[in-house]
Amino acid sequence: MLANLRELTLPLVGVFVAAKGRVSIVVERCKACGFCVEFCPTKVLALSSAFNSKGYHPPHVVSPEKCSGCDLCGMYCPDFAIYGHKLQAPKAEATAEAKEVNNEG
Ligand code: SF4
Ligand code: SF4
What ligand is nearest to the CA atom of residue 30? Predict the structure, then answer.
């Protein structure tokens, strides 16, 4: 709970995980309409029990590994308080190069 409160006092919360996407929340812009929570297709988000400085409950990330980076949350947010983006997969050439090196050794 304390960790959640500390996170929500930050102006921008980012979550880095081994997922296809990442979602960032600008906590102080949020008015807790819940659209992002409702429309996220993989249920990454939930409204927090903590408050921002305006007295709203902003969303927080409950399942970061499920984020695809589709940015539906960002498209539905009327306050530009959340956005998602896709993470780049490791480059194919780099992977092939690594395999070659392993085969030579
Ligand atoms: S980017 Fe897509 S999958 Fe990720 S939290 Fe937003 S709506 Fe959900
Ligand atoms: S859609 Fe935007 S304003 Fe509404 S709860 Fe989500 S982040 Fe907050």
Answer: 2
